[in-house]
Amino acid sequence: MTAVIVCADVGSTYTKAAAVDADSGALLGAASHPTTLGTDVMDGLRAALKAAVPKGANVIDTLVCSSAGGGLRLAVIGNEPLVTARAAYRAGLSAGARVVDVRAGNLTPADFAALGAARPDVVLLAGGTDGGDETALRAHAADLADSGLTTPVVLAGNANAATDVAALLEAAGIPVTAVGNVLPRIGSLNPVPARTALREVFLRHVIAGKHLSASADFTAMVKAATPDAVLTGVELLAERTGDLLVVDVGGATTDVYSVLTPDAELQGPRAEVAGTAWRSRTVEGDLGVRHTAVGIAEAADEEDLATDWDLPDAARRRGADPAFRADTDRERAFDRELSALAARIAVRRHARGERIGGPTEPLRGGKDLAAVGLVVGSGGILRRDPGAAEWLREAVGGDTSGGVRPPKDARFTVDADYRLAPAGLLAAEGRRDLAARLLEGL
Q1: Which domains does the chain carry?
Q2: Which of 157, 179, 213, 268 could form a disulfide with 127, with the two C-beta atoms 3.0–4.6 Å apart?
């Protein structure tokens, strides 16, 4: 009897499952089912698992990642917008979080009210390099303790103040996980400890708190936020392929992942003080092809990209009904156009860099994608479209007017069999050899 490990992703629109041979790493089956948020997510998960697993197989383990219910919503607090707040922001993205609020500098009660209104699941509190100024970190912790918020905190700031700050927050009834500084030295970004802690807080507080299922089995199965699992899979794939780009077009967001060879020039005097994340992820919360489809049409207009005259109406239909299914050639064409626009705009933003601290702040952390050798598309619409690799090539590789350097001679493919997130789940559970063999199919 074949031993199988089942890996599943419970997304905001679809639940995907993959059955992996526990000995060879071969993909034995894959299936998807609409996510059953209206009832219990276990209903859709069970249906996807049943369809993916070959008859007679022996399931020895089930690993799940999830972004249902909005995924992990993160707020960031740091000393300065372009230093510690930026470093914490990057660490949060690498953990699979959607950063919903960033606060830095001298904060007021209104700042904390706004932070609370953003409804974060976790607050990532950073500030100061190790051995550096402790004033802002201590002040932010004191204000947070007085704010009345009880959102769990991951503390990743100045190590010299960490013990006192953690004690202050815990005395105020705020759960705290203290880890290594995200910016121990100027220009040295250290996201791994915060990323690990955010994953643990996501599993302990967020999955249970969203009440996605009445079954305790679901909470026990979930091992990571979906973007965190995908990034782990992307990192493993890059070990074999070199520089790569992954564009995941989803119903609520479009996520872009890149693994790039560091530019030697940017390691010297030109290095950013917040450090450079060469393995990075950006999330575009206004570029989903269902929940936020209207944002795609608006962003295309802002970017001066030509679109079908009726695209705004098509986007509104999808935003009003995220369960919308394209069942005509015309509607499928709109899905393709929305997905191509989301991919193009999201990659432009990823390559241009991030703007932390407000709309007037400069863009930082730009990336040169010209040397990328592999571009992988992901997302339900791409997986179901046999021509997706070609229109993705045109949308991303042929984008010469966006102010960025796109991939020049890359191979374009689609994760049609759903391998990246399962590989990330397997690797995170200590099965890197199986994960690497699974990725050979890309």
Answers
A1: 3-69+213-223 (3.30.420.40), 72-206 (3.40.50.280), 226-420 (3.30.420)
A2: 157
Q: How far apart are CA 426 and CA 442, in angstroms?
A: 16
Kindly report, residue by residue over 306-334, the tens digit of the pLDDT. 999 999 999 999 999 988 989 999 999 99
The reported pLDDT for the residue numbered 303 is 95
CA 352 to chain centre: 18
- Per DSSP bridges, beta strands 27-34 and 14-21 are antiparallel
Measured between alpha carbons, how far is residue 167 from residues 39, 106, 129, 149, 163 in Å? 40, 22, 20, 16, 6
CA distance 3 to 32: 21
Question: In degrees to the nearest 10, what's the CA dihedral of 36, 93, 345, 233?
Answer: -70
Classify residue 298 by its DSSP letter: H
pTM of the model as a whole? 0.80
pLDDT in tens, 116-134: 999 998 999 998 889 988 9
- Per-residue pLDDT tens digits for 341-381: 999 999 999 998 776 655 566 676 778 999 999 999 998 89
Q: Is the separation of the CB atoms in 137 and 181 below 8 Å?
A: no
Distance CA 183, CA 274 (A): 7
Longest dimension (CA), the chain: 63
Which distant-in-sequence residues (6+ apart) come within 8 Å of 237 by Cβ?
244, 374, 376, 420, 423, 439, 442
Instruction: Specify whether the CB–CB gap between 66 and 9 falls below 8 A.
Output: yes
Q: Where are the alpha helices (DSSP H) in 68-185?
A: 84-94, 109-117, 135-146, 159-171
